[in-house]
Structure formats: structure tokens, C-alpha cells
Specification:
alpha+beta
């Protein structure tokens, strides 16, 4: 599993969420991949994630018990597990495109325009119903390179992406699918990972 925490939305608005790339199946002890059914119901996983996230936030005192109770009373949980994007085995181009998307930077220079009136226009990719618009319009001073980078670095530094793998002891899973937890996701530049 590859997880990329994101703390920003399409319009550079605060929007904490995770992007995850997971295999739809498991390796058995002989190293054979057993695929999950295509129509697998992910609803229970979404509910489990919600329950554990709220429990963790409560334990860290990042949320009150009253807020947890309120969130649990909502008809829509506020959590969404979107499994519509799937990559077929061997489709390297689609996999690379998906990985580029989940690790994209918060600011796209193609969407950024400096206007003559001193404002900065940032065009979003779609309409944001909560904000009531598809763009952000800010003053140049609040979008200066220093203030922008400081803000974005602060958002990103709250998360420390870590690659972890815990194969069972004695497992026959090939070494190439394991990631050393001590590397914190860093890759060895001299190693060929395509094998």
C-alpha cells in the first residue's frame, strides 16, 4: 500500500485527506497473487476507517467526545472511500499517471495568473460547492512566494509519508515487493526496481 497524505483541496483550501494505492488482493504463502472479487463492498472498510480515525483524534485530544458524537449522528459520515479508479495488471502508464496524481504538488503553475490589478487568480479544476466558486482570488502579498511556500510547507510537514511492509515471518513473498521500514520510503538510486 502506498499512502500520500494531502492537506489541501483543488482550490488550495484546507482539505485533509489521504490518497492510497492498494492491490486488490493478497499474496499467499507461495507468492501467488489472489485477486479480490471485482464487486467487493468497501462500505465496511470506510466505516472502520471512520471509527478508528475518530478514536485516534479523541485519544490525541484533537477532537472532543461531543464532536465525535455529533459526527457519528450525521447521515453522511464525512468520510468517503472512492474505489472507482482501478489500474489493470501490467498497465504501467496508467499506474504512473495515478502515482503522479496522488503525489502532485498543491500549486499548479498552469492554473496561476498574476493580474494587472495586483490580484492572483488560481483556477480550480471544478466547481467547489462549499466555496461557491471554481477559483481563488487573493492579493499578491498574501500569495508571495515566501508566504505561499511557508504555508504549503507547513501543511505538508504535518505528515511524514512512510512506506511500510510487514510480511509474515517465513513468508515466500518475493523480496522485490517488500519495502524496508527503516528507509521511510526512500529509494536506493542504484537499485533496479523493475525486476
Amino acid at each position: 500500500m502506498i499512502v500520500a497524505p494531502q492537506s489541501f483541496g483543488n482550490l488550495l483550501n484546507p482539505h485533509a485527506h489521504l490518497h492510497a494505492l492498494c492491490s486488490l488482493g493478497v499474496f499467499d504463502q507461495e507468492g501467488t497473487f489472489d485477486a479480490a472479487p471485482h464487486d467487493l463492498d468497501f462500505g465496511p472498510l470506510e466505516e472502520l476507517f471512520r471509527e478508528r480515525t475518530l478514536k485516534m483524534m479523541l485519544k490525541r485530544e484533537a477532537i472532543t467526545a461531543e464532536r465525535v458524537e455529533l459526527l457519528q449522528s450525521w447521515q453522511h459520515s464525512g468520510f468517503n472511500l472512492n474505489t472507482t479508479r482501478r489500474v489493470a495488471a501490467g498497465d504501467r502508464q496508467s499506474l504512473e499517471t495515478l502515482l503522479q496524481y496522488i503525489e502532485r504538488p498543491p500549486v499548479s503553475l498552469r492554473r496561476l495568473t498574476y493580474r494587472d490589478d495586483g490580484m492572483v487568480h488560481y483556477q480550480g479544476g471544478k466547481f467547489h460547492p462549499g466555496l461557491g466558486r471554481d477559483h481563488q482570488l487573493v492579493t499578491r502579498s498574501s500569495f508571495s512566494p515566501c508566504s505561499c511556500l511557508t504555508s504549503l510547507c507547513d501543511m505538508r510537514s504535518r505528515f511524514a509519508p512512510t512506506a511500510r511492509s510487514r510480511p509474515r515471518s517465513g513468508s515466500n513473498i518475493p523480496e522485490r515487493v517488500r519495502v524496508d521500514p527503516g528507509t521511510r520510503g526512500e529509494l536506493d538510486a542504484g537499485r533496479d526496481y523493475r525486476r
